[in-house]
Every structure is written in C-alpha cells, then in structure tokens.
Design brief:
This is Anti-anti-sigma factor. By secondary structure, the chain is α/β, with parallel strands linked by helices. It is 39% helix and 21% strand. The protein starts with a strand and ends in a 13-residue tail after the last helix.
Length: 110
Amino acid sequence: MTLVIDTHRLPEPDVVIAIEPQGEIGSSDAARLLRERFTMVLAATRPAHIVVDLSAVPSISDSGLLALRTGCEHAAANDTTVAVIAAAPAIRDRLSRHGLDRLLDQPDSR
C-alpha cells in the first residue's frame, strides 16, 4: 500500500495543522515522506501546534517511529507542539515502548 499524507489547517484560533497519513508507515521511503511533511509544514506555516492523525495508519515501523520522533524534535526546535491522535492500540503500544507516549491524545489536540 502506498502512503498518502493529507495536510490541512484546522479551524482553531491559533495556526494548527493536521498531518494525516493514510497507509502503512513501514518503509524507509514512507518514513522519509513523513519527515519531509513535518519540514514542509514547519517552513510554510510556522504553526503553534501539529496534530498527527493516525486513524488511517494500520502499522508503523521503527523507521516510521524515528521519522515521527525527528519531526517532533524539529517542531519543538520551532516552538511548535505535537500531538498524536486516533492511533490504533498496537501503534499506541509501540509509541509508548519507544518513549513517544507523551504525544498521545493531548487534551488540546483538536
């Protein structure tokens, strides 16, 4: 399955951008696309917050987790917060095991 990533602004008072991958984030190419999307969003909009909606992601590899971590670090360096929403239980577990559980379902994430 090919990874498609939709990006759009959410109707919030601050600039909040949603990144919505659709498909498996299993290959190094898919991970690169996710990393590049963070870079593009940060350069183009300087958002206050990024919401990563994983509702259409059935699985994520170690390279995908690294891409998410790298994107979050890049966002933090630009004073942008990140939250991950709608992750499947198996993905939530992987995020937790890789120290990314702090991103899960933050109260102001949507």
